Amino acid sequence: MNIEQALHRVRTGPQGREVAAFFDFDGTIVHGFSGLHFFRDRLLAGKVTAAELASTMVNGLRGTDSEADFERFVAVAFKAWRGHSEEELYEIGQRLFMSTIAGHLYPEAWQLIGAHQNAGHTVVIASSASRYQIQAAADALGVEHVLFTPLEVVDGVLTGRVDGKSLWRSGKADATRAFIEEYGIDGPRSYTYSNGGEDAEFLATTGNPTATNPDGTLDRIARERKWPILRFRPRGTPGVKEAVRTAAAYGGIVGSVWTGLGLGLVNRSRKVALDSIMNIGSDVSLALAGIDVRVRGEANAWEHRPAVFIFNHQSQLDPVLLAKVLRHDFTGVTKKEMATDPLFGPLLRFAGATFVDRGNTERAVEALAPVVDTLRQGTSVIIAPEGTRSPTPQIGPFKKGAFRIAMQAQVPIVPVVIRNAGEILWKHSTLLRSGTVDVAVLDPIDVSEWRVADLDTHITAVEDLYRKTLTDWPIA
């Protein structure tokens, strides 16, 4: 089974809250073991004692072949959290998610969870980890229900003891069966997803188990029981190949800038220089990085200009993708920090980009005023209405600036939806991965009849349009 088949199964299957989808966390929703990030955070902060480090390593080396082994391991691991407040641990979990764990989310898992949510299913994350380790991810994914290993808390402070049975092997299966009973879930029509052989009993609690990124043991079990096997693209640390491709891509941009400037001088035209840089630079840099771009609705990028092109912002790669799609006669609005970026800053200034101080609303509004004149003179504008890159595929709240500009200039808004750019170049990464990025240029939105009083309603509708497109990607 591939991801498209898995999504089709959900979309065409039973709908409603009585159907549930239970997802394991480590190895299923995120690549690797998220607990390592918590341990490393404490280690770097000097909060791990020599005794704790030795004990954790010894228990880890012993392995977890039985439930007794695992209970011994978590007893040692969570003992180190004694004396920490719940508030502190939630804060650490949120920080680690934003800085690290979000970059290890499988995009395919995100799509699959979204498909279950759109089907009205009750979505649950079930993990042997503590709630503090997975709550931030659950919030970002919009997952309401979380099953986790409970830790003892007294007056908001952890005692370092597990409060009951950990959710590993039979513990996770028991917790899932209890949830099915409590919430009136139709188990035979529900779904379970996990990667580990220890979760065979958990997977069997529903009628639609799927071995997801299975280890050797689960792969064997799934084949014996004829369960579907689903594999996602690995999200491990980029290697030498990615470093070489990244250097080549940046080199291609620099070379294209010089080529474009040369053509501009020969033709005595700033426009020729800009168009050449945009066309040559985007094509060359993406090719050298091994990145393919599939565009849906390309005609919408040309038929209604000038326009305000808005896009969902996940990656520093986004401007290059937009340059490939739009080609010429556009400029951008970006944060003021980009003006001093050593690579893109000079190019953005040459292209006439507007730099906005996001920390000062009054100055930001003033800076956007000339953009209306730019549109009226025939040059389109690209803006990321979220205001900043998102660490996940989730659509953040849209700010009003792009929509006000379109209303004042009386030009349409053209939504550009980008999928997978965060997988190719995540927010906190500097290395490009090869792969395919999908771009959908949607039908233009006429704002000529919009009123300021109704702006919030209109913006919410556009946000929903992005979410719907990302969940149910257009085929043609």
Automatic annotation (TrEMBL):
GO molecular function per UniProt: hydrolase activity
Documented EC number(s): 2.3.1.51
Keywords carried by this UniProt record: Acyltransferase, Hydrolase, Lipid biosynthesis, Lipid metabolism, Phospholipid biosynthesis, Phospholipid metabolism, Transferase
Signal peptide: none
Swiss-Prot/TrEMBL catalytic activity: a 1-acyl-sn-glycero-3-phosphate + an acyl-CoA = a 1,2-diacyl-sn-glycero-3-phosphate + CoA
Span of domain Phospholipid/glycerol acyltransferase: 307-421
TM region(s), chain numbering: none
SUPFAM superfamilies reported for this sequence: Glycerol-3-phosphate (1)-acyltransferase, HAD-like
Family the UniProt entry places it in: Belongs to the 1-acyl-sn-glycerol-3-phosphate acyltransferase family.
Domain observations: The HXXXXD motif is essential for acyltransferase activity and may constitute the binding site for the phosphate moiety of the glycerol-3-phosphate.
Name of protein: 1-acyl-sn-glycerol-3-phosphate acyltransferase
Annotated organism of origin: Rhodococcus artemisiae
Lineage of the organism: Bacteria, Bacillati, Actinomycetota, Actinomycetes, Mycobacteriales
